[in-house]
């Protein structure tokens, strides 16, 4: 049995696909999918788009193979009572222990579903407590951007919660879950995932990445949740850099029916790379611990391997990271605020693992502005979770095009489309009737 499983994992193509979990399986076709135009019309549209902003929450947390209790409180992590975001992206590493049976065996999504249940309850509990938290102007703007339920109730995705999971994907211990407000769900198009294993034998999923992409209105997003090679010895950062190179080269998404969608990570408008990136501090352990005790973050960050890679490296040069003003997130003794190795003696003394900022969030592309970058004091694992908040610029079709979309979604369009035999969004794209060109 295991040789077959190993072979499947080695030779399995990690290409982009729709093989993920979402809240609304009945809405497989995007509501606005019928408004994909040919390339000539797309050129015109690109010159006539409005720009709006949305708020994006991103977090990363290595939970050390510890399954969450059902009553786990993540309110401090999400902080939804004070910061109301439109998109929530939560990345996890080691949601299951990285033992051979989990790395080589078939995928078990029991733990990831438990995490999704906890996230769902936390987001929607806070949303319910806040009530209608948008101002009248904001609500009017959002209503203008949403399809009219009365015009086409068959294609309107009803949901019981304010937040919906649009993409959820697990590869061994790496797990990413993306949530949006319900009113945005109809405008999420072309969701896809791509998994890259960089672990055992250079291909298994104990290390690697799970990348997700989608288009919100006319802007593409890509979120890469990663767990890179570990190791605190001199030169180990080269393995992490190699993992990044593999992730960039092997991650691939479908090009879409018109072959105009982003295919690689860097092709997207907004890209955020998050996870246990495992970069360490290039100083002797004793020096590192002394500077940590003093709270001298500046001296430590001058020797941080990821910052070096961001400024002078080959793989992540040109990427951005917010200012780090919090203590190293790794490695803690279980259920304590004490860094691992401070009081250990004997056999374990040789693997003390000096403190480091292993858990990071970096981004690439124009139109992203970071509002917050901090860590959360959860003691569930030997890592502290890290979160960031951004504003992201979104290109939205102008009012004329939204009116045209409303026509396509209305009963009037249902009445006039029969002569053209337009039965699906794909049929419409293939025909690309000249009468609908601008």
Automatic annotation (TrEMBL):
Taxonomy, superkingdom: Eukaryota
GO MF term list: inositol-polyphosphate 5-phosphatase activity; phosphatidylinositol-3,4,5-trisphosphate 5-phosphatase activity; phosphatidylinositol-4,5-bisphosphate 5-phosphatase activity
Keywords attached to this entry: Hydrolase
SMART domains: IPPc
The Inositol polyphosphate-related phosphatase domain, residue ranges: 52-398
Keyword check for Hydrolase: yes
Gene Ontology BP annotations: phosphatidylinositol dephosphorylation
Region called Disordered, residue ranges: 126-146
Family the UniProt entry places it in: Belongs to the inositol polyphosphate 5-phosphatase family.
PANTHER family reported for this sequence: TYPE IV INOSITOL POLYPHOSPHATE 5-PHOSPHATASE 9
UniProt name for this protein: Inositol polyphosphate-related phosphatase domain-containing protein
Native organism: Sphenostylis stenocarpa
Upper taxonomic lineage: Eukaryota, Viridiplantae, Streptophyta, Embryophyta, Tracheophyta
């Amino acid at each position: 049995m295991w040789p077959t499983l190993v072979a499947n994992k080695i030779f399995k193509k990690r290409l982009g696909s729709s093989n993920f979990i979402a809240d609304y399986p009945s809405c497989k076709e995007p509501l606005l999918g019928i408004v994909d135009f040919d390339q000539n019309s797309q050129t015109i549209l690109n010159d006539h788009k409005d720009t709006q902003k949305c708020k994006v929450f991103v977090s990363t947390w290595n939970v050390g193979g510890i399954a969450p209790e059902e009553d786990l409180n993540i309110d401090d992590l999400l902080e939804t009572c004070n910061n109301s975001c439109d998109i929530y992206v939560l990345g996890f590493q080691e949601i299951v222990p990285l033992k051979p049976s989990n790395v080589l065996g078939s995928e078990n999504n029991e733990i990831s579903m438990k995490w999704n249940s906890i996230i769902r309850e936390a987001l929607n509990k806070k949303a319910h407590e806040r009530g209608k938290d948008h101002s009248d102007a904001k609500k009017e703007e959002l209503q203008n951007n949403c399809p009219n339920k009365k015009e086409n109730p068959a294609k309107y995705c009803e949901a019981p919660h304010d937040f919906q999971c649009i993409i959820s994907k697990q590869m061994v211990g790496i797990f990413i879950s993306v949530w949006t407000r319900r009113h945005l769900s109809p405008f999420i198009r072309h969701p896809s995932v791509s998994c890259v294993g960089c672990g055992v034998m250079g291909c298994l999923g104990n290390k690697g990445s799970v990348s997700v992409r989608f288009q919100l209105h006319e802007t593409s997003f890509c979120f890469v949740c990663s767990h890179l090679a570990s190791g605190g010895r001199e030169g180990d950062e080269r393995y992490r850099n190699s993992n990044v190179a593999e992730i960039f080269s092997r991650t691939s998404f479908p090009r879409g029916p018109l072959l105009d969608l982003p295919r690689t990570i860097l092709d997207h408008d907004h890209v955020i790379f998050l996870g246990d990136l495992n970069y360490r501090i290039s100083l002797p352990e004793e020096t590192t611990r002394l500077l940590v005790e003093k709270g001298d973050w500046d001296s430590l960050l001058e020797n941080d391997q990821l910052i070096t890679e961001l400024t002078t490296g080959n793989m992540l040069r040109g990427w951005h990271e917010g200012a780090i003003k919090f203590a190293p997130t790794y490695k803690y003794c279980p259920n304590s605020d004490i860094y691992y190795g401070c009081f250990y003696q004997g056999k374990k003394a040789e693997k003390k693992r000096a403190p480091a900022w292993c858990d990071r969030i970096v981004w690439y592309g124009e139109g992203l502005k970071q509002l917050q970058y901090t860590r959360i004091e959860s003691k569930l694992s030997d890592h502290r979770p890290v979160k960031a908040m951004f504003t992201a610029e979104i290109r939205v079709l102008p009012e004329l095009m939204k009116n045209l979309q409303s026509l396509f979604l209305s009963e009037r369009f249902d009445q006039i489309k029969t002569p053209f035999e337009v039965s699906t969004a794909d049929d419409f794209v293939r025909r690309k009737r000249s009468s609908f060109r601008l």
